[in-house]
Amino acid sequence: TSRALCSSKSSIRTTLCLLCVILCCGCSDLVLILFFG
Question: What b-and-e string marks burial along 17-31, b requiring 16 or more CB atoms within 10 Å of the CB?
């Protein structure tokens, strides 16, 4: 059970990292569009 908990925690962490990357990329794209669009 503890192993399953660890795996779920790591998957949640990777999902959060992916979300942060997507948000950062999206924000940078928006900034680029606003400034240079």
Answer: eeeeeeeeeeeeeee
Mean pLDDT value across residues 6-30: 82
Range of the domain at 32: 1-37
Quote the number of domains for the chain: 1
Q: What is the DSSP letter of 13?
A: H
Angle CA 3–22–10, to nearest 5: 5
1 pLDDT higher than 70: no
How many angstroms from the chain centroid is the CA of residue 30? 16
